[in-house]
Amino acid sequence: MNMNDNTAVADDNNNDDDQAPATARRRTMIGKKDPDACLDQLIRSLCIPATRMVEAADLPKLNYLRCMIMETLRLYPPMPLLVPHESTTDVDVAGYHIARGTMLLVNTFAIHRDPKVWDDPEAFIPEREDGIPFGMGRRRCPGENMAMQMVGLTLATLIHCFDWERVGEELVDMSECSGQTMPKKLPLEAIQHRASMAHLLSKI
Ligand code: HEM
What keywords are annotated for this sequence in UniProt (predicted)? Predict the structure, then answer.
C-alpha cells in the first residue's frame, strides 16, 4: 500500500505561505482533503505560550490534537489485527458459524478503511468519529489512557518546540513494512530547531 498522503506540521505564525517556495514546503500536507485547514487548525489549537513547555494538564483542553491522533490511528492502527481472540462457545455472526475454540482476528485496518463505514475512508479528516485502534469490549487495551497521554504530550511538545520541514519536494512516504505493529518503511524526517524555545529546551 502506498497512501502517498502526508503527515505533520509546523508554522512560525508568519502569513507569507503563498509566496516563498521554502515556506510552502514547510506546510507539509496532512491527508488528501483540505490539508492546510487541518494544519492551521492544529497549530491554532495549541495555544501554549512560548515561555513554557506543554504539560499534561493542557491535554484535556487540546481536543483537536486528540482528533488528529485518533484519525492517524484510524488510518495507521499500530495493531491492525488487534491480538488474537478465541471464541468460548459456538456462535453465529453475520451468517457465519464460528465454532468454539476458533482463533479470531479482527482486521481493524480493513474496518477503518471500509467505504461502507466511512465517507471517503482514505482521506485524513480529524473531525470524523474515532476508529477502534485500541480494540473493544473486555479485552480492550487497558493502556489507552496512558498511551493517549504519552502520544499527546510528545506530539504537542514536538509541534510546540520545533519547526518541521520536509527534506525535499517529495511527499512523505507512508508505506509500511511487515511487522506486527505496522512500522513505517522509511523513517520520518526531520526537525529544525525553533530558536524561541531554545532557552526552555536547554533546561531539560
Ligand atoms: C498507541 C498506543 C497503543 C495502542 C494503539 C494499543 C492497542 C492495543 C490493542 C489493539 C490491543 C488488543 C485489544 C483487543 O484485542 O481487543 C491492546 C491490548 C493491550 N494493551 Fe495496548 N495499545 C497501546 C498502548 C498500550 C500501553 C501504553 C499499554 C500499557 C501501559 C498497553 C497495554 C496493553 C495490554 C496489557 C493489552 C492486553 C489486554 C488484554 O488482553 O486483556 N497498551 N492494545
Answer: Heme, Iron, Membrane, Metal-binding, Monooxygenase, Oxidoreductase, Transmembrane, Transmembrane helix
